[in-house]
Amino acid sequence: MELTDCVVEYRRDGGDGHLFSMTPEGVPVFQVSNKDLTPEGRRHWANRVLNAAALCCVATTLASDLIKRGAEVKSLTGRAASGKEKDSVLRTHINEIQVEIEVDIGDADQAILDECLEIISRDTLAMYSLREGIEVEASIKRVK
């Protein structure tokens, strides 16, 4: 099966950074320099990107659903954190991601928020995919 949805390309940038190129429909370039990260930040960088993906999915779904139903979103902020555990052969894996969102809407939009929370509780794309288990396959080949 050829996967063509939501393509992201990666290039290690001189050993000091990561350059992600997104499809034309998305963010064109996302770049992180290791020089900007603490040693702790470099160790857990991929974990934070996974948390950011879950947070982005929940936040954008919520905002979109609120706006689509006529609510005025004054502000929306959030955070995501993950927990880890080791399996029987001591490999670490993420066993949970907690997403917290704070949304500022008017009192008149409370019923819309309640409706949207019901939609979110049935899972967003990232949360459902992670919960059900995403098959990750790596194809690695040497180039010259």
Q: Any overview of this molecule?
A:
This protein is globular. Helix content is 34%, strand content 28%. The mean pLDDT is 78. It contains 4 helices and 5 strands. It is an alpha+beta fold and 144 residues long. Helix 2 packs across helix 3. Strand 4 and strand 5 form a beta hairpin. The chain folds into 2 domains: 36 residues, no CATH class; 89 residues, K homology (KH) domain (GMP Synthetase, Chain A, domain 3, 2-Layer Sandwich), CATH 3.30.300.20.
Q: What does the largest sheet look like? A: 3 strands, antiparallel
Unreliable parts? none
Looking at how many chains there are and whether they match, the oligomeric state comes to single chain
Instruction: Assign the CATH topology of the largest domain.
Output: GMP Synthetase, Chain A, domain 3
Number of helices: 4
What is the chain-wise order of helices and strands?
Answer: EEEHHEEHH
Classify the beta-strand content into a percent band. Answer: 25-35%
CATH superfamily of the largest domain: K homology (KH) domain
Domain unit count: 2
Short description:
The chain is of the alpha+beta class and 144 residues long. Helices cover 34% and strands 28% of the residues.
Walk me through the topology.
Blueprint: E1 8-12, E2 17-22, E3 29-33, H1 39-43, H2 45-68, E4 75-86, E5 92-104, H3 110-121, H4 125-132
Keywords:
single chain, 144 residues, alpha+beta, GMP Synthetase, Chain A, domain 3, three-stranded antiparallel sheet, two-stranded antiparallel sheet, 4 helices
